[in-house]
Amino acid sequence: MFTPRSRYWQVPIDAVTTPDGRTVRVVRFAVRAEPPLAGYHRRLDGQRLDHIAAHYLKDPTGFWRLCDANATVCPGALAARDLIAVPATGG
To answer: Is the pTM above the cut of 0.90?
Structure first.
């Protein structure tokens, strides 16, 4: 379901029964520890997280690692930040 680069790779998937009796599959939230940092990036107006991830992490789909480094699960939460923590590439 998820690729090895995904935040949700190998996260358990549960079956939940809804009030109307349907069974749906849900992915457990991936709780991550904040990784070691390589430094900070001063975000320019309009600069996208996938571009920042591509530059520092060599992986545009790794924008979620920027979220982990900044203790947020929502990429939109980083839009208002001037400084974005950049994880060390091994993290």
So the answer is: no
